[in-house]
Amino acid sequence: MQSPARILVADDDADIILALELLLQQAGYQVLTASTPAQVLQFAAIKPDLVLLDMNFCSDTTSGHDGLQLLPALKQLELSVILMTAWASIDLAVQAMQQGADYFLQKPWHNSTLLQLIADRLELRRLRQRQWQQQQLAQQERSAWVAHSEVMQRLEKQLSRIAGSDANVLILGESGVGKSALAARIHQLSARHSGAFVSVNMAAIPQQLFEAELFGHEKGAFTDAKHKRTGRFALADGGTLFLDEIGCLPAELQPKLLRVLETGWFEPVGASKSQRSDARIISATNSELSSDQFRSDLLFRLNTLVIEIPPLRARPQDIPALVQQLLPALCRKHHRPQLQLSPSAWQQLQDYAWPGNVRELQHVLERAVVLAEQTELHSSDLALQPSPPQPPSDQATPLAPMGLPPFDLQWHQQQLINAALQAAEGQQAEAARLLGISRFALARRLEKS
Ligand SMILES: Nc1ncnc2c1ncn2[C@@H]1O[C@H](COP(=O)(O)OP(=O)(O)OP(=O)(O)O)[C@@H](O)[C@H]1O
């Protein structure tokens, strides 16, 4: 149920405050009252839905200045304001509207007119808020996701068709590569966008709580179940359920997940009745789902469509666009002037291997923005560890006594993997084929690197 709208009544006349308070409370509103400009500002900070503002806080003046002087501060907080005065004149009304009042009403008022006016203003405010939220979402949607490189452009082209279908999606990719962000985008672009997007990180749930987290539980179902709890499947009904790190799902729960995917039915822990959920499942993993840990029938249900997001090092063309999007936002967040990157800093960002992908890029930039002493960020401000590690050239290695040149196996292996990933445009399966190893073996080596 929606909570009642909150209205601030600001007047220096105690009788008027009382009359308005009674009228508005009876109409179901929550009422705050203020009898001095200082109190008005105090209550305004908690953002009431509407302010009924007397233009004269001192009844011996007819200038209307007190109310008018408060208007800019109230409008800065984006509050809706209805100005009221006993000395209505066209000039005052024009002045008040020019300064941002939403409406101007003469005292004494008719109760029914005032209530209708309040209802209209509140409805308009709600509509504007909804519209604004939708615009913000659409704007974030358009501007936040960077897909500049060719490989990401190809992925973009597929995305609207993937989002338009109701098929389950499995997203593959290293940590920090954008799997959660992509899952949220798929939901936003899908016909389910007005339903909930419910996200569960399977790696963060203690083993014994998995079932209750996913399916909910009844009160008293187990020792700590003091209240009935709605599970994620029920919350995602009509929307999308994002199961991050799906590989962490314990084996004993896999048949239960399979059942709900096949039939839509599940039982909350301790419940005697089954419940139904119509949720689209998007899952994600950063490691291969091996058949000895993960049931293949469940995998077939989850991976109707598979999207692999390549690591950032395989698409350096995305780095400038990501930086251009992230840097101004970080400067605003930390109240810093707009910062630029020096050519050497740009070069370093391009050369670095980004084992933590886009998330690591965000952290590196954030740290640099906070600590920067000048308006240009230099490579030293980025504090990146040289990457990949250089092979030791002047040190003797265990191979030297055998007459072999210094050799760093780890480093050379990393070079080969990077080259294969670049040649395969970030597709791990193709890179593994080029290297002549299994995808699982490649994923393990990438994790270690
Ligand atoms: N292409 C992109 N454009 C813009 N921002 C991105 C992009 N990819 C990732 N990000 C941002 O990088 C951060 C990490 O992304 P996200 O959490 O989606 O990664 P992940 O692959 O789900 O990580 P993990 O495997 O650790 O859960 C988020 O803040 C996300 O918004």
UniProtKB/TrEMBL annotation:
Domain named Sigma-54 factor interaction: residues: 145-370
Superkingdom assignment: Bacteria
Chain residue ranges for the region called Disordered: 380-404
Modified residues (4-aspartylphosphate): D54
Protein name: Sigma-54-dependent transcriptional regulator
UniProt keyword ATP-binding present: yes
Keyword Coiled coil carried by entry: no
InterPro entries from the UniProt entry: AAA+_ATPase (IPR003593), AAA_lid_NorR (IPR058031), CheY-like_superfamily (IPR011006), Homeodomain-like_sf (IPR009057), HTH_Fis (IPR002197), P-loop_NTPase (IPR027417), Sig_transdc_resp-reg_receiver (IPR001789), Sigma_54_int (IPR002078)
Signal peptide: none
Keywords assigned: ATP-binding, DNA-binding, Nucleotide-binding, Phosphoprotein, Transcription, Transcription regulation
Organism: Rheinheimera tilapiae
Response regulatory domain ranges (all copies): 6-122
